Structures are given as C-alpha cells and as structure tokens.
Amino acid sequence: MQVKNIAIMGAGLVGSLLSMYLKKHGYQVTVYERRPDYRKAENYGGRSINLAISERGWKGLAGVGLEEMVREIAIPMPGRMIHDVQGNLNFQPYGKPGEAINSVSRGGLNVMMIDAAEKAGVTYLFEQRIMEIDPSGKKAMMEDMSTGRHYTLEPDLIIGADGAYSLVRYAMLKTDRFDYSQAYEAHGYKELTIPAGPNGSFLIDRDALHIWPRKQFMLIALPNIDGSFTCTLFFSLEGKESFEAIKTLADLDAFFDTYFPDVKSLIPDLHHDFFANPTGLLMIVKCFPWSHGNTMLIGDAAHAIIPFYGQGMNCGFEDCTVLDTLIEEFNHDWSKIMPAYERLRKPNSDAIADLAKLNFIEMRDLVADADFQFKKRIAAKVSALHPDRFIPVYSMVSFSHLPYKDALSEYHRQDAVLTEILGWPEIENRWETDYLPQIAERLFNK
Q: Is residue 93 part of a domain?
C-alpha cells in the first residue's frame, strides 16, 4: 500500500509531531482540527494540566529538531516535594543527579509545534469537523464549521490523532472484531493557580513537582516559567469528601483549612477558580486493532491513559518515533507498517496505562509512608552502586527507552523483593552495613 497524501485528524501534540515526521519522509500532509486556531484564541482550549516531558518525549522532539527550542520553555524537576498536613517538606529525587522530568505548558508547547509544522510545509485547516468516515476507511465526510460547507476527503491515508474522544475511533467501532473498552476513574480534577510572587519570583521551590498527598485525594503543583504554578486537585467526584460535597465558600474554606492549610494562602483566587473552573474527568481507553483499511489511530485516540506517570504525551511521541522507524524499515509500504506498528505499541500502551493507575495510588497514598520511602532509598542506593545491573522502575519509565511492558513486569518483581527485604531482622539499622550485598543480589535476580 503506497501512500502520498495523508490526512491527520487532530492538531494536538501528537498529531503535530507526527505531521513533521511524515513531512520529513516526503508525504503531503494536511492536519484537520475541529477547534479554532489555538494561536488566535485568548485562552488555549485544550486540557490545562501541565505536561512532564521525559526521555521518550525528548527523543520525539529531537527527531524533528525541536528539542532545544522546547527546553527553553521547560523547567527541570529533579524530584517531588512532599507536603504533609503540618507543612513539613520532604524532597524525594526521581533518579540520579542530573535526571529530571520537565514541566511545560500544554498550550504553549502545542502552539510552538503547530508553528514548526507549518514552517516545515504541513497544511493546517481549523474548524473542520468529521461528520462520518466510510467503513472502508478510505474517505471522510467533513464539515467546514466556519462556512457550513460539506465536503468529502479521499486521501491515501487517514490518521486519527483526535484524542480520547476520537471520532476516527468511533468510526472503527462499527467494523468487525474491533475490541474497545472505556473506563472512567472515580476521581476528577480541577485546575487552580499559585501566581508568581514579586518580580516573577516563585513562592515555593521551582525545582520540584509538589505533592500534597492525602490518602484518597491529592493536590499537585508544577512550575511555569513566569513564576506561577499550575495546581491540580485530584478528588473524588462523589461522596462525603468530594467535588460534589463542596457546595459553598464555607465548605471550600473548611476543606482547605483541614487538608491544605499551607497552600491556601498561596492561591488568592481560590474561591473563584474552584467554582468557575470546570471539573475534568479521567478516562482510560484501550482498543485493538488500531488500523482498518486506509485508516489508523495514534496517541490518545488509540490509548488514552490517566496522567499519573506523566507519560500520556511521552507515550504518544514514542508512537511517532516507532512509526518513523517502521516507515524506513518497510520502505513506505503501509500495508506492512500499520500491522507492525500496532503489534509493537499495543502491549506497551496497555502497560503504561496500568503503571499510571499504580502510580496514582503511590502519589496520593504512599509517598508519605515510611516503608515506601525506605524501599525507595534501598532501590536508589543499589542503582547508584550498580547502574549497569539494576534500574528502578521510575527510571525505566522516565529516563530510558526500555519498553513499558518490561517496566510493568519489573514493578511487580521489584516490589515483591523489596517487601520481602523489609522483613529481614533489624533491616532498618543494618541494611547498609550488613545486608547491602545480599539486597543487591536479590534485586539483580530476574
């Protein structure tokens, strides 16, 4: 199957990156987006949770020459800063010295990528809505929302990069033997803002992802280059302590006074932001196959995950780099590229979806737990002494290009070994002096 003209549905991060990779291979690429041009809007209309770029994301950006430009608007976060209810702080490094995830504005990054793609020769058409995709996957019926005109697209290939609520995927639901699952979390999220201090200063440590873990819910904050922090409250949608239960300003004040007293004074617009900002939903999507006829899926359209490993965008960017390699390997024969792509990526996208759920529990429940912190210290020490033989799971996910499915297997194995080690006699006092060689051997054993 030879392809010349490609239509990408969705001008988000993955669609824009993919457009540049495809253009680099000589394809004629047009991106169709339902929303107005982000660059002309007063406020970016996408989701607002800040992104955490890690190694897989940097590789994707480097492949189209954007890494250095994006690093200029990103803030490295070498660890997480844990805030307990009393206001005590505990900094926990993510990896070795020099390793960090990086905070960046979703909207700012998206605008930068659209500009770069257009400069590379990609055509963007905004306010274009998919009405229907033919079951063969060979043509799409579209509407120009600015004029009301209906028209038909018949490119050589249609790629759905249109997110978790993908209309391209919806069309594939009507085909035979298409497996699909969609699951909402019981938690939702709401954005709040810690503004910059005087002269653009940071009111809390800029070099960390801040977490206020409170067992069944949590608040996080990521730094922005203007000195502000984008905060996200992850909270139950319903129940005694939930978004549903906070109905008045007094309810909100009581909630923050009880659980987040140290941050309340840092959010001057708390009342307005809490009640004016929408409550977002968290959803996991799994489906297969990712291709049918002349149509395929990529990014969240194929595998939406919850944001608790900071890997949604990174995983989508890795889709692009894998696809880039396969285009070369199969000499542009898309009848071979698409099956190989979905076979390679499906097990890994499922694995990072599972890891993200596990990390949500870790972030809200375990980061303040003494046994959890002890396990992390042991793993970090063994990794520092034997970097060629042992990699902690977080480092496998964020600071390497090892398959996500291998990281998930290691998560279960490493946790079982470390849990067993906690039962050794006088482990807390003797682990470095007496037990370290034995601990290392247990962690090496796969």
A: no
Confirm if 60 and 17 have CB atoms less than 8 A apart. yes
Token pair 């699909």: residue = 180
Is there a single domain that holds both residue 248 and residue 298? no
Q: Using CB atoms within 10 A of its CB, is residue 356 exposed (0-12), middle (13-18) or buried (19+)?
A: buried
CATH of residue 9: 3.50.50.60
Alpha carbon distance 79, 382 (integer Å): 18
**Count of domains for the chain:** 3
400 with 260, same domain: the answer is: no
Q: Is the dihedral of CA 234, 238, 240, 242 positive or negative?
A: positive
Q: Is 219 left (phi over 0), alpha (psi -120 to 50) or beta?
A: beta
Q: Are residues 396 and 412 in the same domain?
A: yes
Q: Taking the mean position of all CA atoms in its chain, how far away is CA 215?
A: 22
Compute φ and ψ for 69, nearest 5 degrees. -65, -40
pLDDT tens across the length of the chain (446 residues): 889 999 999 999 999 999 999 999 999 999 999 999 988 875 554 445 689 999 999 999 999 999 999 999 999 999 999 999 999 999 999 988 999 999 999 999 999 999 999 999 999 999 999 999 987 778 999 999 999 999 999 999 999 999 999 999 999 999 999 999 999 999 999 999 999 999 999 999 999 999 999 988 999 999 999 999 999 999 999 999 999 999 999 999 999 999 999 999 999 999 999 999 999 999 999 999 999 999 999 999 999 999 889 899 999 999 999 999 999 999 999 999 999 999 999 999 999 999 999 888 777 666 667 888 898 889 989 999 999 999 999 999 999 999 999 999 999 999 999 999 999 999 999 999 999 999 999 999 76
- On whether both 274 and 226 belong to a single domain, the answer is yes
Domain that holds residue 14: 5-72+105-181+285-359
User: At which residue do the structure tokens 């109905």 appear?
Assistant: 247
Are residues 274 and 157 part of one domain? Answer: no
User: Looking at the domain assignment, is residue 91 inside a domain?
Assistant: no
Question: Does residue 208 contact residue 52 with C-beta atoms inside 8 Å?
Answer: no
* Same-domain pairing of 163 and 306: yes
Q: Is there a domain that residue 266 lies in?
A: yes
Residues 45 and 128 in one domain: yes
